[in-house]
Design a protein that fits this description.
Blueprint lengths: L1 H10 L2 H14 L6 H21 L1 H13 L1 H4 L5 H10 L8 H13 L12 E4 L2 H12 L3 E8 L6 E7 L4 E5 L5 H12 L5 E3 L1
Parallel strand pairs: 1-4, 2-5
Antiparallel strand pairs: 2-3, 3-4
Helix pairs in contact: 1-2, 1-3, 2-3, 2-4, 3-4, 3-6, 3-7, 8-9
Length: 198
């Protein structure tokens, strides 16, 4: 069915299309058909896992969309329990067939940890004091790994991740003053001697 394929494809890009996928599934009444419901819910769980790792704000919006749709909010569905299990790595709502299908598919294909555990400290930078301290540490490093995360649907960078050999800094660009970020970034990465990898 085209609607099913469309909704499941939307869930492959959850940061941009999760809410739309819920709307399509509700409109075409997937919840009234056992196999369609389980397929949609299992794919939605995979999308929630992606959001848990990459975009907590969109995760909240996606969770609210699922809970607001009566056909997907009724038991045995337990979206909050599933998200909590993904976050903690503990057992989830085992009485929910879609959760069982989701966990079976993730463990049989390739085990995916609920959280990434690194042997280096990760510092979330949200104040100008933290920004200054992190810029100083980065400026003294011989190599810096760079990555960024964007606000869905915009051209605005929301997070800048700067990884050193012994620690990682995550600059929350939505919380920090832009002028301070520009100056700190110049100080941190201005030295030509350090290797930058992104």
């Amino acid at each position: 069915d085209v609607a099913v394929a469309f909704a499941l494809a939307l869930l492959k890009k959850p940061r941009n299309h999760f809410v739309t996928a819920v709307g399509v599934a509700a409109h075409f009444r997937f919840a009234e058909h056992g196999e369609l419901r389980r397929a949609f819910e299992a794919e939605a769980l995979a999308g929630l896992f992606t959001l848990l790792q990459s975009d907590r704000r969109t995760l909240k919006v996606a969770r609210e969309a699922l809970l607001a749709e009566p056909s997907f909010a009724r038991p045995p569905a337990d979206w909050p329990g599933a998200i909590s299990a993904m976050r903690s790595g503990r057992a989830g709502p085992s009485e929910w067939p879609s959760w069982a299908a989701y966990t079976a598919s993730t463990t049989s294909a390739a085990p995916m940890p609920a959280t990434l555990r690194l042997a280096v400290p990760i510092h979330t930078v949200t104040t100008e004091g933290e920004l200054e301290a992190s810029a100083e540490a980065i400026a003294g490093a011989d190599a810096v790994g760079l990555d960024s995360e964007w606000r869905p649907g915009t051209g605005s960078v929301a997070l800048l991740q700067l990884a050193l050999r012994d620690q990682v800094f995550v600059w929350d660009l939505l919380a920090l003053p832009r002028s301070a970020v520009g100056a700190a970034l110049h100080r941190a990465l201005g030295l030509a001697a350090s290797l930058k990898v992104g």
